[in-house]
Write a structure and sequence with these properties.
globular
Length: 326
Amino acid sequence: MGAHALDRDLAELAASARAALVREIDASGAWATDPVWRQAFEAVPRHLFVPYYYVGVVGGHERRWGESPDPRARQEWVRGAYADAPLATRLRDGELVSSSSQPSLMAMMLAELRIRDGDRVLEIGAGTGYNAALLAHRLGDHRVTTVDLEPEITEAARRHLAAAGYRPVVVTGDGARGVPERAPFDRVIATCTLTSVPTAWLGQCRPGARILSPLATGLIVLTVRDAGHAEGRFLHTPVYFVPLRGADRHDEGSVEWGGVPRRARQDDLFRFLLALSRGSLQPREAYALWEREGQPSRERYGITISGDRQWAWLDDPEGPHTWPLR
């Protein structure tokens, strides 16, 4: 049995599990601002995009796959494919290099894009192709472009998309450079964490375009004014994505925590400030600011891009608390 040729019982299980997932996302309020996305999640079969995935077990990872000779294992694979959870889809030397994001988070991000009929969308990070399929279901294949650096990832995404009946443009290339031959775009969505926003994206956007990307441990939403200017604030949601390949990685093991109480070290909002101000504030300085400003939530932070400069800020882009992005 192939992963895309489910027997009747397994197909019924997949349909039932997909319906349950949609109900769960609906109850979470993830697409409350744009409920049209419910139709896409109802229609696109996630299991076709994860013919196998990995789950953590003692001592490493265990692969679940749709071609297991054990019928019970195939059922477990289907149920896991429709769990509202991220799925590890590609490992290299034990390190996660690609995943399928948590569906409710995907739904929230898609809703926050505020897509309009006729928009052209660029996705940075093809992953399994599932997110591109959701976009293509909403907008049509020809209005969706997804890019990834790894040929293995883009080839697999094309196969998954074709199996599900979608054919958006899948490009193998450096996502930081965008896809200029497919520009201009009305929306850009990244599914990998950045340390700064590639300026090439701005030049490929129409004025008024919306860019949504993970940065630090948050989601920044930028409005593009022109090829050299964009600004926006973070959403309240914490997120943790695989870094954009080729980007610098920050080793938290090297952080000097002197003077920072344990409760702050373990606080998500403090760690967000620390990640956002990396290279500008030492942990002790960040802690003093965090306490003085009332332990600010993510929505109080933002990012401004102006020409060659990019900086993060608290409350006001021209205020006293700003940090260059690196």
